[in-house]
Design goal:
The structure holds 2 protein chains of 2 kinds. Chain A is mainly alpha-helical. Chain A contains 18 helices and 2 strands. Chain A has 2 domains: 326 residues, ABC transporter involved in vitamin B12 uptake, BtuC (Orthogonal Bundle), CATH 1.10.3470; 75 residues, no CATH class. Classes of the chains: A mainly alpha, B alpha/beta.
Chain lengths: 423, 512
């Protein structure tokens, strides 16, 4: 037990969520007779959920800051139709189309951010209005029609890493990506040990680090193998790649930069943040604006995948994104949550969805099961907190190089073993 | 007064994961007495009261509670209230948007055929308010009366439940002197009517004045019970019991080294944030010299905090007019970040709701006001953060296992040290400390005074706002008094005593 604790840093419960995800995958792998962990299905899973996961990244920041954004589905749909139309009617090339989409997202975000930050209207109201407004705008601009997008644009929603270099039987870029990731994991672990020596704290025993490196690398390499050996012409999907890059960028911003700290500060105690010199209104504005930009990106990826923009794109996305964030350990009251946690929360939902589909469970039952999972996951979390223990889901993520709310260890020994796992 | 025992708690032990909060504590309360419980923060006083009131239900602790001659096993607050034990918490449990009458009878509304009998509610409320000496209309909303009156409403509420044993947790912590005195008088009044009272307080002078017996708790153990009349108890005696040693002095020795005037406020006038024509600061002028500790004395609501916060980047109120000078040059501080850049720091009187993000840990709180200093390019340097926080933890002697500890878990004194560290890290020239020792126990107070003096010795100016006059007299080199938003006097160390301050703090009012 002690060794497990050391391996996972302080507390095995922290890993509840990762275990839940892995257990879920294994469960479905067995139940579907091996149809879950296949290249085709994994690609499907990423392509079909990447836009929700991207929304979850923006949403967790909004929720940490103490707000909510209900408009993301409509914003995504509005950006999607505008981009599709400028490419069809004005012959914009695909890259200008993307730029237009992102700018439109920023504009919508600035509009909503203005109401929240400057006029102090609750984000719930502003974005509820936005949900209606931009849904209407989508249908007005597109006259409720479906507008197809050109082939090149579909790359961002349904593309794969290209085949380059010598023929190895694997997709070379995917393999390189996987190996690179392993390298990063190992480098990060070693650097962490060095850091601990530098500040005079005691790092975890060597075997703990080694085991962690081996476990993580094994998971990455297995995923690499899956994605690199799919049907000809398929490999790691582009939306997955975009998602990965965003997770890294936003994980970094939320934990390692001043603005990231300020988001947590505002959500944790707005008045205290104000009196500490945080410009909380600017933080409000930025998280809301950022959310809309990511929503526009998610909308474009979706349009790329479905080859056309339609009047009912993105309906209900806000709820999926919010569910992912709360399963991922965020607190309704703000101040708590992590980017990686939210993405894992989203993946739990995605795997559940996918597995139930493979099993031939109907949409009705799927919804019931998803609803119960959301409720139980959060209830479990709340129960743990009320027992004076730290939130499981809120903490796991820290161990993945993403520092959310730090654990409160009860004794020094635990502190060290815990810290050793924080990069 | 008959001397039978109303309450006996026998060998109460209460454990939390990893901590023994109460270790075999026994407490005996005689009927019709005021029994004070003293101890440093974290000693276990509140835990003991939570056990008594059923907040920690029977079965979660070991030991027995005998009340009015019978063993009782409360399973929640309702059952203890039904028996006549009412606890009034430090943070008042009144609902601001409801009226006094609604609050008093909340959860206990008299009904007639299922409908609330408002006539009865209001009539009984008037009766209860008269008993606690409060002349307010029953329909007045709680948010419209001051905290001193709210305290009285809480007591009226307890009386409505026919209380036999009243527990007051830090009843006067948020009250000014006259409200405190009124409350203490009321408690004596209740005592003469046979209501027993347990009172937790850090204000030793009040305890000395009013309590019949005192139980001292230290580190979860009941150290001793003193009988005020028989044992010749005074403040020093209580302190000795609380800290386990005698404190020679309540204030560290300090020889001030005062330099030139470097900060000056001229004709400072600020309006109330919502009531347009009300002024919270009226034409105030004051100066601070380098290395000087300047006290601000005033009754609650006199405008001390408002003055401080309006100077600190206009974080309160509606700025009307006035000038700030620092090192001879006029400066304009329109925002908190600007104030911080100009070397100002403000430690709030309300640590929990304005001073700390309780979700944060020590290290991130320590660096929160000056993240730029530890940021290279884009990245906040977490090694540096750890090192800095660790340094402050050592030098301020913050009691915590490590700087990764969450601030919510610290005692008041240690939280205050973390807040001080946060502002010291901004390397300010002028620190404004608003009630720096509120809710902090005696030992930690001494340390905080030491820190304040060290800051002054470094040539910084320190403003200390406090409701406790002995504290101001003990620490300040100079004291300004404020009354209704205006500065009414200025006294140097040696000139000031409690009486002269009180007179200036109530200027214009006839002393009652």
């Amino acid at each position: 037990m002690t060794s497990l604790k050391q391996l996972f840093g302080g507390d095995t419960r922290q890993f509840g969520m990762i275990f839940a995800l892995i257990a879920l995958v294994i469960f479905f792998q067995i139940m579907t007779g091996g149809n879950t962990l296949t290249p085709g299905n994994m690609i499907n899973l990423f392509n079909g959920n990447s836009y929700i996961l991207i929304l979850a990244i923006g949403m967790v920041l909004v929720i940490i800051a103490g707000h909510i954004d209900l408009s993301v589905g409509s914003t995504a749909a509005f950006a999607g139709i505008v981009v599709a139309m400028v490419m069809r009617d004005w012959n914009f090339p695909w890259y200008l189309g993307i730029l237009v989409g992102l700018l439109l997202g920023a504009l919508i975000g600035a509009w909503q951010g203005m109401w929240v930050a400057i006029f102090g209207i609750p984000a719930f109201i502003v974005t509820l209005a936005g949900m209606l407004l931009f849904r209407g705008a989508n249908q007005f601009v597109g006259q409720s029609n479906t507008v197809p997008v050109p082939q090149e644009f579909r790359f961002i929603g349904a593309g794969y890493l290209p085949e380059i270099g010598p023929v190895t039987g694997y997709n070379n870029l995917t393999v390189l990506l996987g190996l690179g990731l392993c390298g990063v994991v190992i480098y990060g672990e070693l650097r962490k040990r060095k850091r601990f020596e530098k500040v005079g704290a005691q790092p975890a025993p060597l075997w703990v680090s080694v085991t962690r490196m081996v476990l993580l690398s094994a998971v990455i390499l297995y995923a690499t193998y899956l994605f690199a050996t799919g049907n000809r012409g398929t490999s790691f999907p582009v939306p997955g790649l975009i998602l990965g890059v965003l997770v890294i960028i936003y994980g970094f911003i939320s934990t390692k930069t001043i603005i990231g700290r300020h988001v947590y500060a505002v959500g944790g105690n707005r008045h205290a943040a104000d009196l500490t010199g945080v410009r909380s209104k600017r933080v409000d504005f930025l998280v809301i604006m950022n959310m809309s930009i990511l929503a526009a990106l998610a909308g474009m990826i979706f349009v790329g995948r479905s080859t056309a923009s339609g009047p009912f794109d993105g309906v209900g996305w806000e709820l999926d994104a919010i569910a992912a964030v709360f399963i991922g350990g965020a607190a309704v009251t703000g101040g708590v949550g992590t980017v990686v946690g939210s993405v894992i929360g989203g993946l739990v939902m995605a795997v559940l969805n996918n597995g139930l589909q493979l099993l031939g469970v109907g949409a009705d039952m799927t919804q019931i099961i998803k609803g119960l999972v959301l409720l139980v996951a959060v209830a479990f979390d709340v129960y743990n907190k009320s027992q004076g223990k730290r939130s499981i889901t809120g903490l796991i993520m820290k161990n993945f190089g993403n520092q959310g709310k730090p654990e409160i260890p009860t004794d020094t020994k635990k502190v060290i073993s815990h810290d050793a796992s924080v990069s | 007064m008959d001397h039978h025992t109303i309450l006996e708690m026998r060998s109460i032990t209460k454990e939390f994961p990893g901590v023994k909060a109460l270790d075999n504590v026994s407490l005996t309360v005689t009927a019709g007495e005021i029994h004070a419980i003293c101890g440093e923060n974290g000693a276990g006083k509140s835990t003991l009261m939570k056990v008594l009131s059923g907040l920690y239900p029977h079965g979660t602790y070991s030991g027995e509670i005998h009340y009015q001659g019978q063993e009782v096993q409360f399973k929640d607050i309702r059952s203890s209230e039904a028996a006549g034990i009412v606890i009034i918490h430090q943070e008042l449990a009144l609902i601001p948007e409801l009226s006094i009458a609604e609050n008093i009878f909340l959860g206990n509304e008299p009904t007639r055929m299922g409908v609330i009998d408002w006539d009865k509610v209001n009539a009984s409320t008037l009766e209860l308010l008269a008993r606690v000496g409060l002349s307010e209309e029953p329909i007045t909303k709680i948010k419209d009366i001051g905290v001193g009156k709210q305290q009285l409403v809480e007591i009226a509420k307890a009386l409505s439940k026919s209380v036999k044993l009243l527990i007051l947790d830090e009843p006067t912590a948020a009250l000014n002197e006259s409200d405190s005195q009124h409350l203490l008088d009321l408690m004596s009044g209740l005592r003469s009517k046979g209501i027993s009272c347990i009172m937790i307080s850090h204000k030793l002078n009040e305890i000395e004045q009013i309590a019949d017996s005192i139980t001292i708790i230290r580190d979860g153990k009941a150290i001793e019970t003193l009988h005020v009349k028989n044992d010749g108890v005074d403040e020093d005696r209580i302190i000795r019991g609380m800290v386990g040693r005698s404190l020679e002095s309540r204030f560290p020795d300090h020889t001030p080294n005062i330099g030139e005037t470097f900060f000056e406020v001229r004709n400072w006038t600020v309006g109330h944030p919502s009531a347009a024509d009300r002024l919270v600061c009226k034409n105030s002028n004051f100066k601070v010299k380098r290395g000087e500790i300047v006290g601000f004395a005033g009754l609650m609501g006199a405008g001390r905090t408002e003055l401080a916060r309006s100077i600190f980047g206009r974080s309160y109120g509606n700025f009307k007019s006035g000038q700030l000078f620092k090192d001879g040059k006029e400066i304009t501080l329109k925002s908190v970040p600007q104030a911080i850049r100009h070397g100002l720091a403000y430690v709030t009187e309300d640590r929990k709701s304005l001073g700390l993000n309780l979700l944060d840990d020590i290290k991130s709180t320590t660096v929160a006001a000056n993240l730029k200093k530890i940021t290279n390019g884009l990245v906040v340097d977490e090694d540096e953060e750890f090192t800095v926080a660790e340094e402050y933890r050592r030098s301020l002697r913050t009691k915590a296992p490590s700087v990764n500890e969450g601030v919510a878990k610290l005692s008041g004194g240690n939280q205050q040290k973390v807040v001080l560290a946060k502002w010291m890290f901004t390397d300010p020239d002028l620190l404004i400390l608003d009630e720096p020792t509120r809710g902090i126990d005696v030992g930690a107070k001494f340390e905080i005074y030491g820190i304040i003096q060290r800051l002054a010795n470094q040539g910084k100016g320190v403003i200390v706002i406090s409701s406790e006059l002995p504290e101001l007299l003990g620490i300040s080199d100079r004291i300004y008094t404020i009354f209704e938003g205006a500065i009414t006097g200025e006294l140097r160390r040696g000139e000031a005593d409690q009486e002269s301050l009180m007179k200036l703090m109530t200027a214009g009012k006839k002393s009652a």
